[in-house]
Structure formats: C-alpha cells, structure tokens
Amino acid sequence: MTPSTDERRRAEWLGWIAWAIAALFYGYGFFQRVAPGVLVSDLMRDLALDGTRIGTLSAAYFYAYAAVQIPTGLLLDRFGARRLLACASLLAAAGGFVFAAAGGLGSAIVGRAAIGAGVGVAYVGCLAIAATSLPPERFGLVAGLTLTVGTAGALSAQIPLAVLVDLLDWRATMAGVAALGVLMALAAFFGIRDAGFDRQGNRARASMTASLAAILGRSETWWLAGVTAFLGAPVLTFAGLWGVPYFRQVAGLAREQAGLFTSLLLVAWAVGGPLMGAVSDRVGRRPVLIACALLMAASWLPFLLAAPPPMPLATAAMLVMGVAGGAMVVAYAAARDRFAEEGAATAMGIVNSSVLLAGALLQTFVGWFLDLGWRGQLAEGARVYPAAAWRGAWVLLFCSPIAAAVCAWLLPRRAECGMALRTVAAVPGGSRDPDGNARPGPASPCQRGR
Questions:
Q1: Largest pairwise CA distance in the chain
Q2: More confidently predicted of 80 and 195
Q3: How far apart are the C-alpha atoms of 190 and 270, rounded to whole Å?
Q4: How many CA atoms lie within 13 A of 256 on its CB side?
Q5: Does residue 450 sit within a domain?
Q6: What number of other Cβ atoms are within 10 A of residue 104's Cβ?
Q7: What is the pLDDT of residue 124?
Q8: CA nearest neighbour of 233 among 297, 311, 141, 285
C-alpha cells in the first residue's frame, strides 16, 4: 500500500528529529575531539608530558574512532541507529570520567580511547539516517549541515572551554562534559526510530563479509579515503591540538585570544561544509574536491613564510582554509552515491576512518617535529617551541591537501548518483514533489559524468 501524503511527511519529520539527535551527539564528539588543544599546558604540567606524548594522547581518540568506523557502518546497515547511538553515548561518557580522573598518561589514553570509540558512531550514524529517512537529492547538503553542527561543538571547546578551565580546573570541567554523554544516551534511545532502516530493507542485504569485500575491492574506496584523510587531517591537527599553543607561543596571545583565532577556522569549516555540499550536488563531486584541496594548500603558505604571519593575513588564510576544508563532506556524499548497492553506511564508515587515522598520525608527527626543534625553554612546566620549529611542522599540513587533490583527480569518472537516481527513476534526472509525485529536474552529477 502506498503511504499517504501525511504519512510520508510524518516519516520525514521523524527522520529530521533522528538526524538532529545524532548530529548533536556528533557535536558532542567534536567538542571532545578538539578539547585537548585548550588543555595542552594543563596536561603537560599535571601529567608531565612533552609534545610527542601530548600528540599521542590526543591521537588515542582518533585511533579508537577510526577503529569503530567499519563495524559501525556494517551494524548500521543491518540494525539501524537507535540502540547503537545510545550505547555509544554511554561509552563516551564513561571514557570522559576516566580521562577527567587520570593520574598519568596511561589512564588518560584509556579515557580518550573510550571517548573516541563512543563518539565514533555519530557521524556515520547521521549520514545513515539521512540516507534512509531524508530526501536523497539533499544528501550533500545534509552532510554539510552535519559538519556544521559538529563544528559548533568544536567552537564550544575553544573560548567557552578556556573560560571554564580558568574558572574551575580542567578535571572538573571535563567531568561535567562527561555527564552530558548520559543525557545524549537518553535522547538517542527515546528519540530515534529505526523505521527508515526497515523501509530500505537493510536487514535483508547480503552478508556483512560480502558487502565489505565488495566495497574494499573498488578503487573509489581508496581514493575517497585518501581525499578525506588528506583534506581533513590538517584542520583536525591545527584546530584540534596545535593551533592554540601556536598562537600563544609565537604570537604571544592569551589562551582565550588564541582560542578565538582558532575558532575562525572552525567557523569557516562550518560554513564550507554545507556550502560545498550544496555546490557539489549541482556541479559534481570531483571538481569541488580538486579545487578546494588546491585552495586549502595555498592557504597554508602564509604560515610557512612567516611565524607568525600578520594577523589580518593569518585571519584571511584560516577563513579560506576552513571553507575549502569543508569540502571534505563531499567525499562522503560521493561514497553514498557510488556504494548504494553494497551498503552506503559501510562505505562512509571506511571513508570516515581514514580522516581519523590521518589526523591521529599528523598530530603526533607535528608534536615530534616540534620536539626536534625544542631548545629547552619551559613556561609553567610546559614546553615552549621556537618559531622555526613551528614553521617546519606546518610543512606537513601544507603537503596534505596537495595529496588530497591528487586522490580526487585519480577518482574514476563514473556515475555518482547511485541510490539517488534509482529512488526517482520515474523521470530520468527527476525528483519528487512533497506529495511523492515524480517531476523532472536538472541534470544530476551522474548524468554529467563527473
């Protein structure tokens, strides 16, 4: 029986609610992802850490996050989002309490890893809900909006977190943040319905092993993984860990001021995600990915040529960097387009794991490069690095988006529409109006061969 108009609208409304809950959890996870950047001096002092160990501690989140991406995609394709997101929220909360009480590097790593494994479900969960419960022709935009919500969480881990840490201390603040994870679990359990997954028949798909093998056997998987890894890792490294210490040590800014400048990158990233997602819905995925990767590489030049660059120039560069870096979400949209048959959530999980692994490695490598250039200077128990050491470390962040452009260029020119066109197959290149009737529309990226 064909659903009535009211039933379709109600189902879509429930889909938006489910997406919003998952997106809020993603924002919570993004807060946890970048919080160490504000806490660097506190962690160095209280846990007796150097730059390399700080990078390792921060990277524990990313390794655990990346490790759960493929299982998350497989489980979402099979069972839906409700229980998975609720359990993941509780795991993230438990990890937050462990981190807040950590007495050394080992227990801090355990806490950060548990946080990463818990919140690692959020982004792919958002995209899976969007793929099954929201209009397919808006998927690129929804992916960008998800990044915007996540970036709002990251922004709250800059100036607001810095103020709270100064008023209280880092342990009490992070324990309070951990408690919010319990509320996220309740919201997921009572607010998300898995009807969209049932309607799409994900539970009747081929075996998990066969689905995973089919995805891993296609070259698009690896090029898309490379795009997300090399385009997203510089933002995660700068905004998530080393940007605040850079501005404090090289530009002489206070913690709150340094957090403000780092927030500019995140604000631009929040704008760039939905903007580039919407543009790619119209002009195709590859052109947007290539152009934005090259633009992002160019935005790192002021940081290589001066330490620090003039603040107006640094501000402009970070805004460009953020908007261009937001194009990372286009790779997820491309994965959804190309892997609808094998399992879109699984494909997006694989692609998402790459950026977290790359972010973990890049954060650690930057810390290692800084330690190589350290001249023994300390301030309140934390290492102070010379300007030359920072400039050398930023070379890695300059090369990363160039590699992303190469991966995007090597992405095969083939149909990018996947499920989207099959959903509206009544009229080639068409869509459906709010009443579910097929109607013609502009040529899709699939039909343009991009």
A1: 74
A2: 80
A3: 28
A4: 6
A5: no
A6: 11
A7: 81
A8: 297
Q: How far, in Å, CA of 246 to CA of 387, rounded?
A: 9
How many angstroms separate the Cα of 291 from the Cα of each of 65, 90, 216, 288? Answer: 28, 40, 26, 5
Nearest to 33 by CA among 241, 323, 174, 176: 241
Q: How far apart are CA 238 and CA 401, in angstroms?
A: 14
How many domains does the chain contain in total?
A: 1
Contacts of 305 (CB under 8 A, 6+ apart): none
Domain assignment of residue 375, given as a range: 8-412
Domain-embedded: residue 444 = no
Reference 418, options 224, 59, 137, 51; nearest CA is 137
Whole-prediction pTM value? 0.68
Cα within 13 Å of Cα(321), Cβ side: 31
CB 295 within 8 A of CB 320: yes
- Is residue 403 a contact partner of residue 232, using CB atoms and an 8 Å limit? no
What span, in angstroms and rounded, lies between the C-alpha atoms of 311 and 315? 6
SS3 for 228-279, per residue?
HHHHHHHHHHHHHHHHHHHHHHHCCCCHHHHHHHHHHHHHHHHHHHHHHHHH
List the one residue out of 327, 225, 312 whose CA is nearest residue 270. Answer: 327
Q: Residues in the chain, how many?
A: 450
Q: What are the helix and strand counts (H, E) for the chain? A: 22, 4
Is 439 a residue whose pLDDT tops 50?
no
Tokens coding 156 = 């709250």
- CA–CA separation, 385 vs 372, rounded Å? 10
Output b/e per residue, 348-384; b: 16+ Cβ within 10 A: bbbbbbbbbbbbbbbbbbbbebbbebeeeeeeeebbb
pLDDT value of residue 159: 83
* Residue 102 located in a structural domain: yes
- pLDDT computed for residue 198 by the predictor: 44
Residue 440 lies in a domain: no
- Cα 338 from Cα 294, distance rounded (Å): 24
d(CA 449, CA 220): 15
Identify the residue whose tokens are 């030049």.
Answer: 301
pLDDT digits (tens, 9 = 90+) for 250-292: 988 888 888 888 888 888 988 888 888 888 888 888 899 999 9
The pair of structure tokens assigned to 420 is: 């989207």
Containing 23, the helix (H) or strand (E) segment is helix 5-47
What CATH number is attached to the domain comprising 364? Answer: 1.20.1250.20
Count of C-beta atoms within a 10 Å radius of residue 319? 18
Q: Which residue's structure tokens are 């919140």?
A: 119
235, 290 in Cβ contact below 8 A? no
Eight-class DSSP state of 415: -
